[in-house]
Amino acid sequence: LVLWLVIAADERPGPPARVWLAFILGAASISLLGLARAPFAAILAVPGNPWMTQGLRSVFGVAAPEEIVKVLVIIAVSVRRRTFADPMDTVVYGAAAGLGFAAYENLAYLVQHSDMWRSLAALRSVLTVPFHGALGIIAGAYIAIARAGTALGAHRHHRDWARISSWSLALFAPVALHAAFDFPLLTLQKHPDLGPTTRMLLGASSL
Q1: What is the reported pTM?
Q2: What is the pLDDT of residue 70?
Q3: Structure letter (DSSP) for residue 82
Q4: What distance in Å separates the CA atoms of residue 197 and residue 2, rounded to the nearest whole number?
Q5: pLDDT by residue (tens digit) across 170-182?
Q6: pLDDT digits 0-9 by tens, 127-164
Q7: Which of 26, 123, 149, 156 has CA 20 to 30 A from 99's CA?
């Protein structure tokens, strides 16, 4: 449903085969998470500082590896673009990659927690699925802006800087948002003995 809503917003839809390819590769990209996490393995803990450790794990243990593999999928699917292709195509591929990733991740969670799969599925359908899709859309939009240059608003006198910053934001913006979403939830999971006020604040900040 989320993917259909994104496609329906495109006035000139791209090839459906590419959209499904992005979705399938997004799901398959989970198999690359081990490789994406490897470079960050040495910086995931700060002895004696559990809050800093949780922050590092949120950024480099979860957010960065997941967004790296999704961005690679978006680039791979959109690298051979049609002549005069609509920049919106890359946004749709981003949504498809993010939702494919979320679909596979959801199946894994539901299999692991089969005793509570109904409530877990309902919760993830309104939080995690749209969130992964939105992060893919953001990455796809910045990639499209970086490629289109002045056509999408980058000032012509600063187009080189605009292109570099857009390519950077294609990864860093989703990573920052993902980490901000995960940090409170992972903290709640790691510290079940927190007071009710702290738990409420953490949950609210994640939302």
Answers
A1: 0.87
A2: 97
A3: P
A4: 34
A5: 999 999 999 999 9
A6: 899 999 999 999 999 999 888 765 555 555 567 778 88
A7: 149
Query: Residue 126 is encoded by which pair of tokens?
Result: 């309104």
- Let me know how long the chain is: 207
Look-up of token digits 């590896």: 65
The C-alpha torsion from 115 through 26 and 53 to 41, rounded to 10°, is: 120
Element (DSSP H or E) covering residue 60: none
4 burial type by CB count under 10 A (0-12 exposed, 13-18 middle, 19+ buried): exposed
Bigger pLDDT: 8 vs 184? 184
- Nearest one of 77, 76, 68 to 20, comparing CA atoms: 77
Please, what is the angle between helix 16-28 and helix 64-78, to 10°?
150
Task: Single out the residue of 83, 82, 79, 100 nearest to residue 19, CA to CA.
Answer: 100
Non-local (6+) Cβ contacts of 67 within 8 A are 135, 139, 171, 174, 175, 178
Give the integer Cα–Cα distance in Å for 12 and 127. Answer: 29
In the numeric block, the tokens 């449903």 are attached to: 1
Q: Quick check: 81 pLDDT over 70? A: no
Residue 184 φ then ψ, to 5°: -65, -40
Residue 131 token pair: 């969130």
